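Posting for a labmate who doesn't have an account.
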Amino acid sequence: MDLGMIGIGIVAVIGVPLVLMAYSFGTETLISRLPDVTSERMRPWIWLAPALILIVVFYLYPTLRTLLFSFQNADSTAFVGLANYVSIFTDPDMLSTIGNNVLWLVLFVMGTVMFGIIIAILADRVSYENVIKSLIFLPMAISFVAAGVIWRFMYEYQPLGFAQTGTVNALISVLTGDDFEPIPFLQNRSINNIALIIVGIWMWTGFCMVIFSAALKSIPNDWLEAARIDGATEWKVLWYIIVPSIRTTIVVVATTMTINVLKIFDIVYTMTNGNVGTNVIALRMYHEMFQFNHFGRASAIAVFLLVLVIPIMVFNIRNFQADR
């Protein structure tokens, strides 16, 4: 092992805790010598200072630098104004990429929320609820890259006449017979984005299910039983009692899924690398930065993505405050 790496490890394991202890002891000693009023005012800021410094160094400064780069050319040597932002809305490939994100936004959010609610309700009615929830939540235990690799093999196909090695095509061929024409799920432009979105839904449905399940537990059983005694169908119970009771949870989960899908990267990068009309905004930013070496356009796309996410986060925060 490299001695430099060993040194970094020693610093991380021993040095960082020592620095934190020294900071804690030193600041408390300093504050204790000040007048009571002054010490009470300074103590919160002293303890917040490390976190604020980290936020400035790793969040605020990079954000401002990215904003600056977005107005510059490829190698950040000349000012180009809004040219990089104009390219976002005029370049056909970029417009296609935005369209793919819109498709992800609609189908992914609807799919995860809908299946999350349905599975949570159904699992709540069986004795083996924990087993079902564990199986549905299991995909969250693996990385997105691993999920992409798994599903890439599952979507694999062989020409007609050969044994299908991909799980999905093999299953369909068993059900339909030998005349089945294998489906190139990741190569067919009419279905490849849908195939990728299915992977995303498979990954995140478990998360939504757990949140909705917790919300369902808070609904008084008396309400549900009274509605059923009065003759309400299960559909009416769902629509008029369950959904209004967990409305805030639905909004929070939907906005969380929206933020996640706007930043979707790993699944698309692993399975198609954005080829065959499957590119998304985050992956396009990566390509501009590391493949085309155009820092200006990459930074503009990053700012564009940030602008899309911020209103959703603000809405989520306001929704929390209103609910409180």
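Reply:
Got it, the structure tokens are right above this. The chain has a mean pLDDT of 88.
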